[in-house]
Amino acid sequence: MPQSITILIVDDNVNLAQGFAQVLKSVGYAALTAYTAEDGLRLAQIECPDAIILDIRMPFINGVGFLYRLRALEAHRHTPVMVLTGASVNEEMRAELCDLRALLRFKPLGMSELLAETRTLLAHDWAGPSDTTNLKSSVA
Question: Could you tell me which of 58, 61, 75, 102 has the fewest CB atoms within 10 Å of its CB?
Answer without folding.
Answer: 75
